[in-house]
Amino acid sequence: MKRLYYLTKNVESTEQVADDLHRAGITDWHFHVISKDEAGLQKHRIHLAAPWHRFDIVHCGERGALLGAGLGFLIGMFAALTTPVGDLFGLWFVPLPTGLCGFFGAWVGGLVGLSHENYKITRFHDAIEAGEYVLMVDIHPA
Fold it and tell me: Model-level pTM?
C-alpha cells in the first residue's frame, strides 16, 4: 500500500473529496482525515483518523521494544554468566528478561508515543493547527 496525503481548506471540500473517493471505489477504511474539527467531520460523516494515525504510538512502541529487548538481553546474559541463576538455568534464562523487558519497553514506548505527533504527519502540523484538513488515502501502487 502507498499512502497519499492531501490538504483541504474546509470541511465542505473535504466532504466533496470523500464523496469522489467513494465513487472511485475507495472505502472509508482506505482513507482517513485528521483535523482539529473532529465534531465537524463526524457531523458530515467523514471517516476520522485513528489514534495511531495521529500519534506516534506504533513508532515509539517499536523503538521502546527494541531498546527494552536489548537491555533485557544484556541483563539476561549478565545474570546467566555471573550469578547462581546461571548455574541453575544457563543460557536458557536469557529469553525471559529479554522478552519481559521488550514487552515493557513496547508499553512504555507506546505511552510516550501518545504525547508525540505521528512523525509521518509532522510536516502538516502548521496546516492542521491553522484549521486545515489532512486526507490520508491508502492505494495500491498500481
Answer: 0.77
